[in-house]
Write a structure and sequence with these properties.
There is one protein chain. About 70% of the residues lie in helices and about 0% in strands. The protein has a two-stranded antiparallel sheet. It is an all-alpha fold and about 750 residues long. It starts with 6 loop residues before the first helix and ends in a 10-residue tail after the last helix. It has a domain of about 140 residues. Belongs to the PPR family. P subfamily. InterPro entries: PPR_rpt, TPR-like_helical_dom_sf. This is Pentatricopeptide repeat-containing protein At3g61520, mitochondrial-like. It comes from Juglans regia.
């Protein structure tokens, strides 16, 4: 169950994290923690205060030569004196400077009947505290440290921490580490390790920090990590690079586990941050382990961390573990929020599991499991969009009505946009327009997404003029379109070969103050290229470059195709060269376009050169490229070359030929009266599992008719029937001219009986 820290404990953690100061030593009386964490001296009780003030005055007068030491000695060292190491410490802290404090220390050491080093150490610690508040304290502290070693005065634990922390803040990390190495092992407690860890983490010394943390976890059982260790380490782990050394996700997970074994856990924010990062790095399993390690070890878990893991699981499509986690949250009394259910519903809708999303929605409303989380407009919109995406627009409409009646939520622009998009994609443009009208009546204001959705829906279903009319109406009403609106309309006009209207819209964009984006340029260039208007396409390219955009591979391919179709091979090569200079690599579409054009022109030497270049770049020729080459060779009467390429396909290139290639070869062989070879190809098709179609049979029937191979024709007719390959009008034309003439009308009638004659697309 999530148990938040009390405000006092939060304050304590915060102060400890910032200051990393020592706990009160046994020799000093207890005072409230917030005073103890401060570097200010702790005020003594009232009866000691007058003694301290008098001692300070007497010592300063002694320093100035205005009194003897007798009175001070009696005050501090007589048998009736209440003086103690704590009193000496307070006197030291009230002196004017650390140098004066050193003189006071020497006075105590020379005059005190007791030379007990521990008492002297606490006094010397006060000098450290005094020096830490002076300008450039690190130099003075180092000097005091050397003085303590010279005079054989051991540092206290607190003095050591103060020195290390001060050097660390001055970015003198190496000197701080040298001090730590020289310290007596008895001074190295958990609090000192925390100070050193803080210094190392702040300075980016992650290797050293991890080594020291490992020392705490494994070799120093007397110095276990505590929650301050966690407050230092966990924020530091969010950094990715430390002087060139990155921390892997596995290392972070390992540290969380090791610290968790000591009851040290990241706070809710850091745990959520870690789980989110692991999920983004596609390490969902490790994120699951981290959360459950904290859960099993008794760490504090809050709903935000669970939500982070649910998001990752949902993105990964792991709905089984999403449900498991929801069950575990219930067992631990972690109350899911509207965000929790929103994550579930969103991921289920995106995976088209709308019925499960609706079930989760019912649980959210408290219909079952005793939960009651108030839904918001985002939840409703997610569900409505999910329903529309799977074609259940009417249910989406019903849910919008339910939204009004059962909750405090009112439909907004997004709600209507989801429904309008759903009806547009279903081809129900009239219903979409009715929703748009209803939206306006309810004073739910449409936005540019509403406009673009309706324009796209109309264009997709052949209502381009209606889309333009609607667009003009919206402009008059003050709703301006954007680049998406214009590119949608331009693409629609290009698809119906109305390039002039597309150009008109392009020019209108500038008048309306709407800057074309790259997609607008690409759309227009593609339309112009398909229409063969390459001069206009070149002009648009110049405008695209002036606007700061670059051509992408798709646009280059469209242009190369356009120049090839208009027989401007030099321009196509110019585009190819420009591509290389721009660092855009040619792809299989580029080479397919060039090879198809070159082979059609009979320029086979250049064609094979381009093909070799393609293979050198690591691109594998496709069946379409082989088909284009074979077809070109056949058209040029070079059947042998075509057959050689055909044989190379299965051997060296290992690209299996399809029925289109077989049809090209069989048709060409039959035309050259090489019917036997054509028949062998048909047998090969059967062996390789390539199904012949009506075009294959028609080519063979023509060839067999020329040779009058009736028995072979009858075999093929039987095979057509077995394979349920319907004859077309060409089949009947060939057979009706041939079979009755040789007295085989009965065979023809039997063949066509029961067939539904199809129209050939060949």
């Amino acid at each position: 169950m999530s148990v938040p820290l009390s405000s006092s404990k939060q304050s304590t953690v915060f102060l400890l994290h910032l200051c990393l100061l020592k706990p009160q030593t046994p020799a000093i009386p207890y005072y409230p923690l917030h005073r103890h964490l401060s570097t200010e001296p702790i005020p003594p009780p009232q009866d000691e205060d007058s003694l301290i003030n008098e001692a300070v005055q007497l010592f300063q007068a002694l320093e100035d030569g205005h009194s003897s030491s007798t009175q001070l000695h009696q005050l501090l060292f007589s048998s009736s004196s209440p003086s103690s190491p704590a009193i000496f410490r307070q006197i030291t802290l009230r002196l004017a400077s650390s140098s004066q404090a050193i003189e006071f220390f020497d006075y105590i050491r020379s005059n005190s009947p007791s030379q007990e080093l521990t008492s002297l150490s606490f006094t010397f610690q006060a000098i450290f505290e005094l020096a830490s508040r002076e300008p450039h304290p690190q130099n003075k502290l180092l000097e005091l440290y050397r003085t303590s070693k010279e005079r054989n005065i051991p540092l206290t634990v607190n003095g050591a921490r103060l020195l290390v922390r001060c050097l660390g803040r001055a970015e003198r990390v190496d000197e701080a580490l040298a001090v730590v190495d020289e310290l007596d092992p008895s001074l190295k407690d958990t609090h000192l390790y925390n100070v050193v860890l803080d210094v190392l983490c702040r300075s980016g010394r992650i290797v050293k920090a991890l080594k020291m943390l490992d020392e705490m976890l494994q070799t120093r059982a007397d110095c276990p990590p505590n929650y301050i260790t966690g407050a230092v380490v966990f924020p530091a782990l969010s950094r990715r690079e430390w002087f060139g050394r990155s921390i892997s996700d596995e290392e972070i997970v390992g540290l969380v586990s090791k610290l968790g074994a000591h009851g040290v856990f990241p706070d809710s924010f850091k745990l959520t941050q870690l789980i989110t990062k692991l999920c983004w790095n596609k390490k969902i399993g490790r994120a699951w382990d981290v959360l459950h390690d904290v859960m099993k070890a008794g760490g504090t878990l809050e709903v935000a961390s669970c939500n982070a893991l649910l998001t990752g699981l949902g993105r990964d499509g792991d709905f089984e573990r999403m449900n498991t986690l929801m069950t575990e949250m219930k067992e631990m009394d972690i109350q899911p929020t509207v965000v929790t259910f929103g994550i579930l519903i969103n991921r289920m809708c995106k995976s088209r599991r709308v019925d499960e999303a609706l079930e989760a929605f019912e649980k959210m409303k408290g219909v079952s499991d005793g939960l009651s989380v108030e839904s918001n407009v985002i939840t409703y919109n997610t569900l409505i969009d999910g329903l529309c995406k799977v074609g259940r627009q009417e249910e989406g409409l019903t849910l919008m009505d339910q939204m009004r009646s059962e909750s405090k939520c009112m439909p907004d622009t997004v709600t209507y946009n989801c429904l309008i998009d759903g009806f547009c994609k279903a081809g129900k443009i009239q219903r979409a327009q009715e929703l748009f009208d209803r939206m306006n009546k309810e004073r739910v204001f449409p936005n540019v997404i509403t406009l673009n959705t309706l324009v796209d829906g109309m264009c997709r279903h052949g209502r381009v003029n209606s889309a333009v009319q609607f667009f003009d109406e919206m402009r008059r009403a003050g709703l301006e379109g954007n680049a998406v609106t214009f590119s949608t309309l331009m693409n629609a006009f290009c698809n119906v070969d109305n390039i002039d209207k597309a150009m008109e819209l392009f020019n209108q964009m500038s008048k309306d103050g709407c800057s074309p984006d790259a997609i607008v340029y690409y759309t227009l260039i593609s339309g112009l290229s398909r229409a063969g208007r390459m001069d206009d396409a070149s002009s648009v390219i110049s405008m695209l470059k002036e606007a700061g955009f670059c051509l992408n591979i798709v646009c280059y391919n469209v242009l190369i195709g356009g120049f090839c179709r208009t027989n401007k091979l030099d321009k196509a090569y110019e585009m190819l060269k420009e591509m290389e200079q721009a660092g855009v690599k040619s792809n299989i579409v580029t080479y397919t376009t060039l090879i198809t054009y070159l082979s059609k022109t009979g320029n086979f030497a250049t064609t094979h050169g381009v093909m070799r270049k393609m293979i050198k770049q690591g691109l594998v020729p496709t069946v379409f490229i082989f088909g284009a080459l074979i077809h070109a060779y056949c058209l040029n009467g070079k059947i042998e070359e075509a057959m050689k390429i055909f044989r190379d396909m299965s051997s060296s290139s290992k690209v299996p030929p399809n029925n289109v290639i077989y049809n090209i070869l069989i048709n060409s062989l039959c035309k050259k009266n090489e019917v036997e070879l054509a028949l062998s190809l048909m047998d090969e098709m059967k062996v390789k599992g390539v199904r012949p179609d009506v075009i294959t049979y028609n080519a063979m029937f023509k060839g067999l008719r020329e040779k009058n191979f009736l028995e072979k024709a009858f075999d093929l007719m039987d095979r057509m029937v077995e394979q349920a390959c319907n004859p077309d009008y060409i089949t009947l034309e060939v057979l009706t001219e041939w079979l009755p003439a040789v007295g085989e009308t009965g065979k023809l009638k039997k063949f066509i009986q029961g067939y539904e004659i199809s129209v050939s697309a060949a």
